[in-house]
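User: I'm preparing a small set of examples for a lab meeting where we compare how different chains pack in three dimensions. I only have the primary sequence for this one, and I'd like the structure in token form so I can line it up with the others. Please keep the answer compact; I'll paste it straight into my notes.
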Amino acid sequence: MCTFRLAGPLLLSLFVGATVFAASKPDFTGTWELDVKRSDFGNLSKPARMTIESTMQGDAMHSVQTTYVEQESQSAEFTWYLDGKRHSSDKPVPGYSVTRWEDATLVSDRQSNDGAYKETIRMSLSADGKTVTETVETKNPSGTNKEKLIWHRKVQ
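Assistant: Understood. Below is the structure token output for the 156-residue chain.
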């Protein structure tokens, strides 16, 4: 599951639902667990735990991210359109996103309508399909941040 993170690290959820549009595209669907120890959160607080469940719905992916902090958990949902076109969004702030493939890397650029919040997420899957590396670069009125998150696929 950010500097777009008005509701916690919501936008981290992007990578999980990415589908196979072609044989060369990684399949990010399933359940994923954040490797908190190996991840770098930049200047953001480290969660106790984070998971993402992602499924495909037509040409879009739906992700549910749950972030655990101390005794509480917070869930956030987002739908990602993988067609490379601009799509309006109201989460976490009113704006838009463009999600596209750059070879085998899934890239999502998000921006608020006023341009004050910008975020770029890049995700790639390991050759064995068990680990995702996600980078999240954000810019907002409070400053900038860069995260490197390591996710492991949970076996069902």
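A couple of notes for your slides: The chain has one domain: 10-153. The chain has no helices and ten strands.

User: Perfect, thanks.
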